[in-house]
Amino acid sequence: MKKLLNKLNTEITHKISILDKFTSILIFFGLILGIGLKIEIDDLNYNKNNQNLIIIVIFTLFIILFIFSCIRIFDDKPILKINENGVFYRSSFLPFLPLSQLKWNEIDFVELKIVRYSKHSRGKGLLIYKKNSLTPKTIHLEDLDYPENVVLNIFKKHSNFLNSINKTEIKT
Question: What is the pTM of this model?
Fold first, then answer.
């Protein structure tokens, strides 16, 4: 039991759930099917119909995104990993790419803040500011299967910027 607690306090790993993977496949398949039923084969002929170029581009984009969504089923790599070496995160939608690394000594400032997930929902997020960068990397704490205090303890343990509760500020 003590080993499990020690492991929890030293590394956090977050993967995309199978349900989320299949949801994206279904969404892109539905969009392709919807557009596919609306257009005819003659509409896809660029030489005949120059005005349908936008439809052809959108249709092709959805097919590419659908293929990437299908490939993501076989990608079992985590999208977020936090351990003693730093923060590793997936920086793009593309499957099988290596994780981007942010070492602890590259982090300038961390802020606990209420962030917007989408247009209508908010939640707690950990904003990680890299040195000499204005754009933070956001970790949505509600997406993780770990308690908030475990995540914050890892940041407190491996960094020199979040040592007291006074530096953690929740803004609305």
Answer: 0.65
Exposed, middle or buried by CB within 10 Å (0-12, 13-18, 19+), for 146? middle
Residue 5 CA: distances (Å) to CA of 9, 10, 60, 77, 124 = 6, 9, 48, 23, 24
One digit per residue, pLDDT tens: the chain, 172 residues? 444 445 445 788 888 888 888 888 899 898 888 877 777 665 555 555 556 677 778 888 999 989 988 888 888 888 888 888 888 888 877 777 888 888 888 887 787 777 777 777 777 788 888 888 888 888 887 778 888 788 877 877 776 554 333 334 444 4
Strand pairing partners for 14? 80
Cβ atoms 124, 116 nearer than 8 A: no
65 SS3 class = helix
